[in-house]
Design brief:
eight-stranded mixed sheet; binds zinc ion; 14 helices; TIM Barrel; five-stranded parallel sheet; 447 residues; single chain
């Protein structure tokens, strides 16, 4: 028997009456005000507002029409443990996730040491069972040490609970090596997630290669560094009938390559990050190192292609690629700074403010894409329906806040949206029936 893929610390099963909340769950088709009862951590009842009355030992949450959504799921985060706990760890990373409305995340293996062995996976899962505030799944490396030369013990890792495999942070440059991994996948399962980059094209680059990099005199990374690898690996996935997930798509040609692969029936899926959906190379002009990420922010045409892909479903889900770095690591000249931005605490509000409020996408679609990541990795999707475990996020869509003004739950503060005025604030998050986050100013009426 393989181990359960998701792990979390101990959670106290809650008894809640959420009175008069606006339930929005695109999958169960609800978009209406309801009273919602959670009994011993399970969704027990949904009724017309005002229909349910508080039971003894039940906590009353006055919803006041605030939105109750299935809790979000992020298939791509960096929790930095083991080895870089000065940036993040399981406690702070999952606290940041809970504050962003997430009840599940998948952790990447580019740690120190690299998560590439069963003993390390076991020990991380043990730590998560003590420290993680929400459900965490681990995605070990495809190749040992992320070096692209030797496959990890994929079957054994799967037995120990590996959700899938990735060399994220690096590409699998050898097509032959990736093909071998895809053949192993046939025996042991587990989605193979790919960071696409051709190092012979990206080498030396610190931002998108284009008008802005030319103006700033900074070495550029051309979009073909990503898109040619997406095309290559889509072809490999098709040839081997393998299950591949493309991480953090960033440009027109990659979206086109995925659309073509999907049209042929290949088993590929994709994600896009809030920063690629909302920012462009223009945001790099000030050489703020929080705007330095991999893949780099590209052009407005690229951003529009990602939004169109999100709408059409070519892009299956939103993933933050939450990548914490210490202040002193980012406070260096742009070229030398490490790549990455944090994202868990701002994802919903940034996308709601930037895409939903101006009418570019519907709120229901955003919620669908923020929750779709679980099913892509064969994990249960959070749903608001009686009998389901309570995985919920309660959001005040009208609340305005400035990102970072009251600090962060994450240990790091390298957020590309810091200082922006955002709309939409998470008031409460419930994970597997336990309340894992309450906004400081949000009061509840006692049990
Ligand atoms: Zn990556
Ligand atoms: Zn990443």
């Amino acid at each position: 028997m393989a181990a359960e893929p998701l792990v979390h610390g101990s959670l106290q099963a809650a008894d809640l009456l959420l009175r008069d909340v606006h339930v929005l769950d695109p999958r169960s088709g609800i978009d209406a005000r309801r009273d919602v009862r959670v009994r011993e951590g399970q969704l027990a009842e949904l009724a017309e507002p005002g229909a349910l009355s508080q039971e003894p030992n039940e906590e009353l949450v006055e919803g006041r029409g605030n939105h109750l959504m299935p809790a979000f799921f992020d298939p791509h985060v960096h929790l930095r443990t083991p080895g870089q706990e000065h940036k993040e760890d399981l406690d702070t990373g999952t606290r940041a996730a809970a504050a962003g409305g997430y009840a599940g995340v998948l952790a990447m293996p580019n740690t120190d040491p690299v998560l590439d062995s069963a003993p390390l996976l076991r020990s991380l899962r043990d730590t998560a069972a003590r420290e993680a505030r929400i459900a965490v799944g681990f995605v070990p490396a495809i190749t040992r040490g992320l070096e692209g030369e030797q496959l990890t013990e994929m079957a054994e890792l799967r037995q120990q609970g590996a959700v899938g495999f990735t060399d994220d942070g690096r590409p699998v440059t050898s097509a032959g090596m990736l093909r071998k991994a895809l053949q192993y996948q046939r025996l042991c399962g587990g989605v193979i997630a790919l960071h696409e980059e051709d190092p012979t094209l990206s080498r030396g680059g610190a931002m998108h290669e284009g008008a802005v990099s030319a103006a700033l005199g900074i070495g550029g990374i051309p979009t073909i560094s990503e898109s040619t690898m997406v095309a290559r690996d889509a072809a490999l996935a098709g040839y081997e009938d393998a299950r591949v997930h493309f991480q953090h798509l960033s440009c027109v040609a990659s979206v086109q390559a995925v659309a073509a692969a999907k049209a042929q029936g290949f088993r590929v899926s994709t994600e896009a990050s809030p920063h690629h959906l909302l920012l462009t190379e223009e945001d790099v002009r000030g050489m703020d190192t929080r705007m330095k990420m991999n893949p780099p922010l590209a052009t407005e045409a690229d951003r529009q292609a990602l939004i169109a892909g999100l709408r059409s479903g070519t892009i299956d889900c939103v993933a933050t690629d939450h990548a914490p770095h210490a202040r002193e690591e980012k406070e260096v000249p742009f070229e030398q700074a490490p790549m990455g931005t944090t994202g868990l605490e701002t994802a919903f509000a940034a996308l709601y403010t930037g895409l939903v409020l101006p009418g570019i996408i519907e709120l229901g679609l955003l919620v669908e894409r923020l929750t779709a990541g679980a099913a892509l990795f064969d994990l249960p999707t959070h749903t608001i329906a009686p009998g389901e475990p309570a995985n919920l996020t309660l959001i005040d869509l009208d609340a305005e806040w400035v990102a970072g003004e009251r600090g962060w739950e994450s240990r790091s503060e390298n957020c590309c949206f810091a200082g922006r005025k955002l709309r939409g604030k998470v008031l409460m998050t419930v994970c597997e029936g336990g309340v894992v986050y309450r906004e400081r100013a949000f009061s509840v009426v006692g049990a």
